[in-house]
Amino acid sequence: MTPITPSKPRPNATDFDIWFLEFSNTYNLNLKRSPPGLSPDKKRGLPYYSDLQYYESLKVQYFRGNHTVIYDLFEQGAKEIHNKWVKKPCAERGVIPFPTQLPRATSEPERCQLLELLRAILDDVGSTNVSSRASFSASPTRSHRSRSVKRHSDEWRGSPSPKRTRGSSSEVDTEFDPDDERPPSVLSNLDRGAVRTASPVPSQISSIHAPRDPRLATSRTLYGLTNTANTSKSTFASQVFSGHDEYGPPPDSQETQTTVIASNPESVKLPLLQPLRGFGSDSDSLEPSSSTERALQISFDNHVKLQQNVRELLSGPSTHSDLHPVISPTPSPIKEKTDGIPPRVGYGGCEDLVQRLYDVWPHLPGHYDRAPFVVRWEILRVALHCGIHMDELHLEYDPSWTDQNTFWRRLQAQPILRGKSFPEKSRPDAWTAALNDKFGTTDRVVVLTASLTANTSKTGPLFFLKLSPLKLDLSHRLSRRFGSDRFLELVIPSMSSQDVRNFGESATESIQRWLVNDCHVLLGRVWMSFFLKPSLPKKITNENTLGPQTKTIHQERIYLFAEDGNDFCRLGPADHWSPKGEPVAMHTKMGRGSLIDWLLQVPNNEDQPLLKLFSRIALGLSRTHPTVIVQPEQIRHRSVDVLSPTNKVMNDGIALMSHGLAREISHLKGLQYIPAGFQGRFGSAKGFWIRDTADTSDDIWIETTPSQRKWKCDYIEDDHRTFEVRNESRELKSANLNLQLLPILEDRAIDAALMKAQVGKFMRDSLKRDLDVQKTAMQDPVQFRLWVHENSPSSRRAERLKYSQVPFTAGLPSSREDIMSFLLDSGFNPTELRFLRDIAWKLRMEKCQELQERLNVKVGRSTYAYMVVDFLGVLEEDEVHLGFSSKFTDEQSGFSETFLHGVDVLVARTPAHYPSDIQRVKAVFKPELGFLKDVIIFPTKGNMPLAEKLSGGDYDGDIAWVCWEPTIVNNFRNAEMPTAPDLFQRGVIHKETVRYLDLVGTRDITSEFLSRAFHFNLQQNLLGICTNYKERYCYAHNSVRGDSAILLSTLISNLVDRAKQGIVFTDQDWARLRKTLSRADLPEPRYKKENWSGKGEPTHIIDFVKFSVGKPTVEMELRSFNESLGHAEHWDKDLVKFYQFYEKFQRPFNERKEAVKKSTWETVLEELRKDIDVVAQDWPRVRDDWESMIANIYERWQAISPRTKVNSKTVRSLQQEDQAKVGCSNWDLLKASFCFKMYYNKSPKFVWFIAGKQLAYLKAMEVSHRVGAPPVLMIPTMYAGSRPDNKYARALAAKNNGLDLVENEAIDEDEATNLSEEEV
Predict the structure, then answer these.
(1) 1148-1174 pLDDT, tens digit each
(2) Which of the two ends of the chain, N or C, has the fewest CB atoms closer than 10 A to its terminal CB?
């Protein structure tokens, strides 16, 4: 019986679509499928019609069976082109690097090159019968049709011929076989640019093997391609590594080591490393490759394997054939050797934990690689906030997204995001700056911050990632050198927090290793951590309990550096570090080891203790103002400090600078005066620099002292010679008496009862005075406007300077002080408008509560000032000098002077623990020091620096509390410095003494260095626990003296410098120490509670001030204050007049009810009412995440516009474009006025926060009309700089009270002449 040959399966359209998209995605051609069901005419109208020609032509050739030939020819041609993109190693002529990575297009020019190649191949194959050229094993069955298809050139230019060509796709049998159809998700994933894991790469299927027919090899010359000896003869695979070392002998064969192709859509290149002499190791310096290469294509389901491979490669040797090693310019004895890639490391044997840690970092589809980094950041931020996976966001990048509003609208229009609450928008100025090549403005940079929150569920990622809105801030030295976009600040829960402890002890150790040793793939970049420090605790309030409960989560701030990325290029052979000034999209690959080496110059500082050296990285991350670049010959490095007879350093942390340098720095900072000194950073030096009073020249010079220099720095690069200003001395003002100082004041008082009574009197008088001033001011808007200005925090000006305007959130300014000022400027009265009155009342309430809790008693004759030293030596021991740049005035006592002389003063520094931490000294005026104002100058004479007596302070920027109030100073006597116990000798604390040099010889010195530093710094710091215990101990004994109190104070002083000094103090150490102090649990001090719970009258000074003075005074004064405010209403008739004008256009209600058809204005107002109601319904949900919630509601409010039902030109004219852009069109005013009428009483906050700008505009119009003068408009920059005139406000208040108060200005030349003539 003759055997029956089985029929070959017929190819179908779905198979072709999958093949087509995989082909396009493999080479990043970004080709589109032809939309089904569209007529040819409609297809021609598509913006990407020219690209559809590739789809149609490839479809024809696919069904003819020619697609394998096309694929092979394209593969060889793409590799040939790709070799031209790759920068040649060591610039050797004639050498073409092995094609170790997929030749994918990473820019539009590269894509166009590949498309030209494809077009040439299709033209040639279409005009040649290639069906019988060669036999390819396992190739798909080809169609027996072999028609000649020739495309006209105009079709490739986007101008297709109107006639259908024979052999076009319409003539091919493309019927779908339902049984053969693949799941739709496959095609949808491919449409988004994914490369399926199940889909083999070109080398893994026979249809993509290189052709063996010599005729095919010859035909490649048709496209300008030749087969050279430098082209790899092996099959094209993901040849990420080869065994060839460029600086060693070549391999015996062209065989390459193949690796698993991960296909995460982020398409992140694997960072490959070479051993770095000196500081680094194989993980210190990432070896470079061309910016157009891609090491891996990362799939959705293989994301874990990618990160595992990257992690292994980061700790293994680099053998990339087209890479060159990085040679450190500074020779070092450190030399490391690696023996291959280590096996996959599991954390505690828990694969599930490893998976959950890898899942922390969400992937971004590869087609977003073309988007600017800021767009990638924002789109992922929105997706994370809305809780969607990026694969669910079917949205292709569009260049128009660089416009923030367009981008935001596109996202909000997506079906999966529709109706979801969006996160807070990044500020427009930060967005614009992030699109800049420098990722910042002239004086600010865009800062990238994110946070991880512990996942309490047993499944899913171990932490939830949240990206923060982009913000502008000062730069730090590392960001100025390497680019702000390469640094990511990640806030995570402390390892000692309960949320992390719930994971288990072994998991905590795994998390630490993951943080420091693993690479973190995010947004197409590979990030590695290199520093950490404590972050501010996060407080979470739970409102669902019987009473509000606050949970405090301690946090760490991890700093990560982008070592590699999709848009990173290779490092030059002679370069050790990335070049300065690289654009955002053109960074150079560089490891964290090189980053640290650049800053700390480790080969010259290996003898330093490991933990101290690690702590110095903080200087490179300190946000400062860069000013003058000092030339090497202008730097004076002092070899010794000023020493006392007992060899104590008397100028710890302080040095001199020339008057000329101080003037230049002041000019660059925009200061109108030259301050006495600056707190700053300069190379490896940190501290305070004061002007040399003996220098009268214009020379530029600066000194550094041994106590300032934290490591050996060569000061070669400009960034190491730039004086970075952190702060400058500024005009002094009256200060508060810190709570921590009260027990010491009582202990050192000659008459303790009198001291207690005096402090209580200061609090009572201060509180009563403040409330009386506010009560009076609120009776007059001009006076109240002045009061708001004078009582605003200093950060208010900084915020205005940052944005060059008053920051707004939705319809009102962001701060309460600015809201009050804005409403007052618009004509509202605080005694009439309830919304304004409530803000003022709440502000006063909070200040009173803060006063009761913190007990910051204001003392008029006291201030805070930077501590500096007398380099001239004119001050004697226990003498200080304090001069003011302007008259220091205390209205309560009548003090008004420009310097102190011949009076005793108290000096202290917080936190204060020892009884001797407050010192009574003599203030004297020395003419030689008169130029140094607004700083307190301490002597350099004596055996011990005065700063050290004050809680172990120094002069690197420490601030002293200075008090010359006679009733306090005269009742105070000094305490002798206590003999501090040696806690090391007693075994209470220990010290980590490992030096960096001790790590030499380890396999990966960088990772070992950082692992040890991270492990130490992530351990719980018991400073807060010990401080609280010491407070309870001293309270229970009502004394700050005694051996136990001194021991605890000494322990706290050591723990303050724990991270830098390597102090080891564990829970076990603390438990042992507590047993020697007190076996009973000490009670919480009563002043921590809301009400007095003790028997009789309070005796402790803090209890007395709070419960006997503060609380009764606050309650009485607030009651009086509330009564003085009178009755205020939410209603304001001026705000509804605008709506009432349009309301008249409606017919009476009865007529409207019976009418068949509504009029235009009836329709407009009815639809507007409905739209306002819809937006208002979401307002009650605005609680948590205030910024993002109100931003979402405000955007919906702004989107309210006349419905399409109304097509009247009259209605459309309400939205005059120029006025609408700033929210002042008649439509905006109508919305605001109508909204006020509807919700002024039901939801006043909703009305004001959404429509505050327009309501203020309407009020200003009405008030101006009543006074007979036009309203005055101001541009944002001018408004931000406006301030009330103090003299005008006082004169106007006097005029209103029937007085004639005119404050004359200083006598000018004309007036002086007139006076002289009159006298004559």
Answers:
(1) 877 776 666 778 888 888 889 999 999
(2) N
